[in-house]
Amino acid sequence: MKRGSGRRWWRQCWRAGLLAGMVVGLGGAVFATGLNDTGQTTCYDDTGAVSPEPITHPRQDCTVGRDAAAAAGVLPKTGAGSKGFDYTKIANNGSVLPANATLGPNPDQWACTRDNLTGLTWEVKTDDVSFGYRGLRDKGWIYTWYDDIHTDNNGGYPGVKGSNTCNGTLPNNECNTQAYVAAVNAADLCGHSDWRVPNVKELQGLMDYGISRPDSTSSASVDSAYFPNTVVSFYWSSLTIANLLPTKDYAWIFEFGYGSASEQRKANYAAVQLVRGGQ
User: Fold this and answer.
1) pLDDT score of 4
2) Cis omega before residue 246 (within 30°)?
3) Is 263 strand, coil or helix?
4) Are 155 and 26 in contact (CB under 8 A)?
5) Biggest CA pair distance of the chain
6) Looking at beta carbons, which pairs linking 19-22 to residues 24 or more positions away fall under 8 Å?
7) Higher confidence at residue 181 or residue 134?
8) What is the model's pLDDT at position 171?
9) Can you tell me the mean pLDDT for 225-229?
10) What are the backbone dihedrals phi and psi of residue 271, each rounded to the nearest 5 degrees, phi first?
11) Which residues of the chain form beta strands (DSSP E)?
12) Which residues make Cβ contacts (< 8 Å) with residue 10, sequence separation at least 6?
């Protein structure tokens, strides 16, 4: 088997299993309407990429689902987006924007992306160096996992409040997930104050598994036209890991390179990309 071909096949199977509920946590949201496809449009056998789909490896994502329909030009969309993804840009003031809208801090500029399939709306991270400063939602900030509000979700251990890893953008220089959620909600991002940390399945719904794993300096394996500042890094989910006893000091994280979930101590630091809706 050529290097990489088995990994691609495994990633398709792994994602299908995760979306079927293999990841177990406490609490978390459910999708509002549907699931995104994987973004995988290349067929594989045990030796590498092939075309057409081999009868020995049937029903791959290259021939079924939304991505295949989009490639055939028969997939209707509410908005736009690569492959089977269907996104709409949303302004800071909550208004719907055209696909060519640009990111910015003004009320009528792009700040969020709505997934028209799942019903979720996502924060779009900023690259504030281009604006001459690095503010609250900059892509470079990292946070500890902390939640002392949702006691049914933290496993009995709320986590760690953190230190100043977000350039003083949060109160008391405590850069943690709960403080970040509160700050974004106070700012009424895109006209809403019900932003939250996503669960693992929601994060994975952004992943385009048809994009080759990027290096650490590249954009993540997502639709970069709608999520330009999502980085190849670990992102916190809202879910405490239920089966790591006795301290419950681990939570699930998701990585936008290989597109895999793993455990991380709540005291460690990771990125955050907030979501709303779907509950």
Assistant:
1) 41
2) yes
3) strand
4) yes
5) 60
6) 19/201, 19/204
7) 181
8) 97
9) 95
10) -80, 170
11) 43-44, 49-50, 87-91, 96-97, 110-115, 121-123, 234-240, 250-255, 260-265, 275-276
12) none
DSSP state of 124: P
One-letter amino acid at 155 equals G
Q: What is the pTM of this model?
A: 0.84
- Judge whether 9 and 57 are in contact, CB under 8 Å: yes
Task: At 258, list the tokens.
Answer: 């290989």
With b meaning 16 or more CB within 10 Å and e meaning fewer, what string describes 132-155?
Answer: eebebbbbbbbbbbbbeeeeebbb
pLDDT, tens digit, 9 for 90 and up, residues 57-75: 998 888 889 999 999 999 9
Q: Are strands 260-265 and 250-255 parallel, antiparallel or unpaired?
A: antiparallel
- Show the DSSP H helices in the chain as ranges: 5-19, 65-71, 177-186, 200-204
Residue 252: the pLDDT is 95
Per-residue pLDDT, 22: 31
Calpha distance 83→213 (Å, rounded): 17
**Which residue type sits at 159?**
G
Please say whether the beta carbons of 229 and 271 come within 8 A.
Answer: no
Whether 197 and 172 have beta carbons less than 8 Å apart is answered as no
Residue 235 backbone phi and psi in degrees, to 5: -120, 135
